[in-house]
Amino acid sequence: MSTQQEAEKKRIKLIVGSAVIILPLIFLWSSLTYTISSGHAGLIFHTFGNGVDAEAPAVESGFHIKAPWDKVYEYEIRQQELFENLEVLSSNLLKIKMDMTVFYQPTYDKLGYLEIERGNQYEAKVIQPAMRSVAREVIAQYLPEEFNTTKREEIQLEIEKQLKEKLSNNYIQLNDVLIRNIELPLTLEQAIERKLQQEQESLEYEFRIEKASKEAQRKRIEAEGIRDFQNIVSQSISDELLQWKGIEATTILAESNNAKVVVIGSGDNGLPLILGGN
User: Fold this and answer.
1) Which of 116, 143, 137 minimizes the C-alpha distance to 45?
2) β-strands 51-52, 95-106: how paired?
3) According to the per-residue pLDDT averaged within each range, which of 50-54, 67-71, 129-133, 184-188 is highest?
4) Which helix (DSSP H) or strand (DSSP E) does residue 166 occupy?
5) Labelling 108: which of 99, 203, 212, 268 has CA 20 to 30 A away?
6) For residue range 112-148, what is the model confidence (pLDDT) as tens digits?
7) CA 129: distance to chain centroid?
């Protein structure tokens, strides 16, 4: 066999050997590798092992390699929101409709436990039932009209507190709760409006009474001041003072250049009488 033929055989063997190695890799590439999206984390299910290891750390986002027989469960670990329209009963058994929105995310270092005990459909299995249960339990302690008072914030805080505890026990972190669009029974809303209107009218009436009372008090104080002034003046005026003032006035008139004054006799009180003038 010539050297050229031997070289050709070696080349064929190399191509076949490479194909034997590369082709399976090509076909198995999708099962050997996986990519975790941004904002997500992965859990490895070991097919020939014990499944998901709850204590194993979650796989971070990026490109990874795995055994072709293993599976990967991907979880979104960013904050998410869930909306629920609820109908609950108050303490006096009246129906109240409201919208509740919760902001949550799975507890990162407990993803293994979440997968094993609840699964990746944990929103429908855990969060929604917890929202309904807590809302009914808390609102059943209050009257419908209390939703329009400062107790509305108290109700929301109580719902958030209890819901946070329930979700935490299920490896879910609650970030916030919003309660909106509270709809009370129509008859109750009308009764509340009438009550508020009556309270407003009562406050307005009390304001008018207080204003009138203050005005009467002002006038009474003013009258007392006038009366006191008159008492002081009347006590300070004597007959001698009046006579002296009469003399002063007579003197001024007598000294006037524009008047010719004739004094005759005297008055009953001894004051001069002045007659005539220009």
Assistant:
1) 116
2) unpaired
3) 129-133
4) helix 151-168
5) 99
6) 999 999 988 999 999 999 999 999 999 999 888 787 7
7) 25
